[in-house]
Amino acid sequence: MTYFRVQSPKAVLFASLFGLFCFFLSSPTKAEIGAHILIDAKSGDVLYESQSTRKWYPASLTKIMTAYVTLKAVRDERITMTSPVVQSKNSISEPPSKMGFKVGTQLTVDAALKIIMIKSANDVAVALGEAVLGSEAAFIAEMNREAKRLGMRNTRFVNPHGLPDNAQVSTARDMALLARAFWYDFPEARQIYKHPGIKFGRKPLRSANRFFLQRVPGANGMKTGYICNSGYNVAATATRRGRTLIAVVLGARSGLERTAFTRELMDKGFKKRGSRINVASLTGSSGNPPADGYCRRNKKPGVEAMMARFDMQPKAKRGFLSALAPTDDPGSVLRPGTAAVSKKSPASAMDSVTLPNGKTDWNAVLDRTIGPERLEYRPITVTTGVPRGAAVVARLPADGVPLPTAKPRLAQAAVVADQADQGQAEEVNPQAAAQPAYGSLFRKGKGFAVPVPTPSPRQSP
After folding, report:
1. Which of 52, 83, 88, 120 does the annotation list as catalytic?
2. How far does the chain reach from its first CA to its final CA, in angstroms?
3. How far is CA 139 from CA 16, 69, 83, 164, 174, in A?
4. 60 catalytic residue (yes or no)
5. Domains in the chain, start-ordered, CATH in brackets?
6. What are 287's strand-pairing partners?
7. Which of 263, 317, 323, 399 has the fewest CB atoms within 10 Å, measured from its CB?
8. For residues 212 and 252, is the Cβ–Cβ distance under 8 A?
């Protein structure tokens, strides 16, 4: 005879809850971010990271290396900040985002750097590379040499802007190395990427990083990027009480999620001290880039999901049973060793970001997921043309690629002398004339974050 043991209602309830608990522990959660890393800029200590050695498409984070190679050429006295950058047939052929200047339009290296770091114009990135090394191919080769020198083991560049090309890959770890070198090797260049926008004529061109710059305490900025295959990327820095952190976030589902996640990383990181892992010691590759169409598989989160995940207002405490209860909330998270905890935003939170007409109050959403606006939006003015006394390209070569003057200091001196002979010396800006012709942006004798190899004696002239 078979006997059945009748369980009490409490035992049945406990068994059911325990089963749900085990189910949620074994169920994977949807990834919101592809890869990320947060490091201490000074020590290189890794404070937080996830899949930081997985290969990923850098998108316009590529332009950090474009700016790095350019500023290194300025520091090496090969070009000046006022050297001409010319829109060529090759550069204007790049797709948007772009400035679209006519072929032959000239602007300074300084203006070009501001345009690529703030507006992220792809055509100007190519024109800048052509001006620095004479051709786009030569510039890309230099980008890869610098990547190797910096220890970016899983990075390969095939263009200077980051437009889609599956051969162009990097990792969050490699981009953190680059951002750290850029931060320390060219500290004066922080004045370039700290601005939330540029103004060209009457046209304002806003930076995709403006909310981070305007709302996150201590934000310094750096560079954002986006292509469908990468999702929303950013390399960002923030400084608080003399300490600087560098975050690289790859594969966010929206610009808002990218910025809110970066803000959250920064807030957590400034509370943490030290680490046993250094960014330079992270080795290997933890995976291949995402399959094509990454953005189409990872739909942008809605307002309610963003408020559930990133709302900085205190949330109401929930009971044990409600914490274990199943939920369809897309904001639910699962942490190792814990039950599934619903982070569904209370009705009051959604009410606070909804206008009387039922539409979303986006300023309120930004206030609660990123932070209240701390700085006024003030774009900087950028113009075409080169100043009097700078080396000017008289004509373009046959292939339409501008070649900078080999000896800009001598060229500037010749222009000033010619003006003096014609009685026009008083029209020359005395401050500009007093400035060194090149390298004036950077302090002499300051070493690089990663030592530059000494040239081989056999290769010396």
Report:
1. 120
2. 101
3. 63, 8, 16, 18, 19
4. yes
5. 23-28+301-369 (no CATH), 35-297+376-381 (3.40.710.10)
6. none
7. 317
8. no
